[in-house]
Amino acid sequence: MAEKIILAYSGGLDTSVACKWLQEERGYDVHCLTIDLGNLNDLESAKKRGTEAGALSVNVIDAKEDFLNYFVFPAMQANALYQGQYPLATALGRPLIAKLLVDKARELNATSVAHGCTGKGNDQVRLDVAINTLAPDLNIVGTARENEMSRDAAIDYAKKHGISIKQTLESPYSTDENLWGRSVECGELEDPWEEPPSDVWLWTAEPEAAPDKPAILEIGFENGIPVSLDGEKMGAVELVQNLSNLGGQHGIGRVDMVEDRLVGIKSREVYEAPAATILITAHKSLEQLTLSRSQIRMKEQIAQEYADLIYNGLWYSGHHRDLAAYTQSSQRDVTGQVRVKLWKGVLTILGKQAERSLYSKELATYGDDDQFDQKAAQGFIKLHGLSVQVQAHRQLLNNNDDPLYLASPEKTE
Ligand code: ARG
């Protein structure tokens, strides 16, 4: 009896070819697993193609809810952006896909799992590390890494084996999509001097062509989780989908960057992430009201660590668990509303309020109801500057080659 393998299957050209190839060249019984993270528009034709490619079964799992609750929202609470820009949509999906592949392998008593990631990208690292961590006994086949088929060869292979590929050939780019965003690479994007061709953008309107009239929305957060839109309670999937559509219509959430891949390559990537952009910006602005200076500072550092570990495929690590614990705890009072304006590619925070806000009008105001003790400022300043004063007088002042320009004129003569 042939060994069973579970293939992470998107329904596209590459994974369809992979399905056939695993049977023909490696002798596996192939079971396809398609994981819906909000990226799939044509499940039926994907299923059909899987069967044409010889899969013994094609299973679809709707993982949208879990994706948002366990992966996306915790990363959003951390305000995680890789290299300050990429909201990590693709990267966040991988540990969940790995987990579901492993679960399916257990269910069907498979010995192996397979994916179609290339040998140059981050996605193979994320999947392999997660699978090895969750199930060290499973064998992993990276089909694209092992068969090294060019695109033309893959097309020929599909034709030869009667796999219908017409709809899968439209894009000249390598793309990945889920609820949190869309990633685009390759093709004309490989020249960072060239503006991205207009056909890379599928979710977002050209800012100049977006409506003249702005959209104004109110997003409600509870403990750092978005729970309502314009006062209406909304489930995670619906809320993110709505923000994605609205943001897209107003040209919000385009990112064009050269990023550093884990495998050492600099790569030009384009992202469309309207919902992620709106939610992270709104969430951060609510934290301005609800977190202390020290918490904000710590969270900025955590955001970077968090983004790196997600990007680098270390989701199932102790370091992550610890960062997540701080992040979770920090969201205790991040409950309130943020009003945002979307207009021609520009996202503006118009207002924010929180139930347990740290902002105190009586302390901040320059008006009559000022309760801040201005006289106390003098004593505070004296002590705050004390160590600087001592050091400057004993070590720094009147030093002629002083780059801080501290020397006084009479002494420099
Ligand atoms: N560069 C991004 C990342 O590493 C996006 C990867 C997109 N994947 C793809 N198969 N096109 O997360």
Summarize the structure in words:
The chain has a 5-stranded parallel beta sheet with strand order 3-2-1-4-5, with helices on both faces. Strands 10-9-8-13-14 form a 5-stranded antiparallel beta sheet. The protein has 15 helices and 14 strands. With 413 residues, it is of the alpha/beta class. The mean pLDDT is 94. The site of arginine has 10 residues, from α4, β6 and β7.
What is the structure about, briefly put?
The protein is 42% helix and 20% strand.
Could you give the topology of this structure?
Blueprint: E1 4-8, H1 13-24, E2 29-36, H2 43-52, E3 57-62, H3 64-77, H4 89-107, E4 112-115, H5 123-134, E5 139-142, H6 143-147, H7 151-160, E6 174-178, E7 181-185, E8 215-222, E9 225-229, E10 232-233, H8 236-249, E11 254-260, E12 266-272, H9 274-290, H10 293-311, H11 318-330, E13 336-343, E14 346-354, H12 361-364, H13 374-384, H14 386-396, H15 409-412
Residues 90-91, 122-123, 174-176, 183, 185, 269 line the site of arginine.
Using only C-alpha atoms, the radius of gyration works out to 26 Å
Give the termini separation: 95 Å
Order of helices and strands: EHEHEHHEHEHHEEEEEHEEHHHEEHHHH
- How many individual β-strands? 14
User: Unreliable runs, pLDDT <50, ≥5 residues?
Assistant: none
Count of structural domains: 3
User: What's the CATH C level of the largest domain?
Assistant: Alpha Beta
Largest sheet: 5 strands, parallel
Name the strands of the widest sheet in spatial order.
3-2-1-4-5
- Tally of separate helices: 15
Shape: elongated
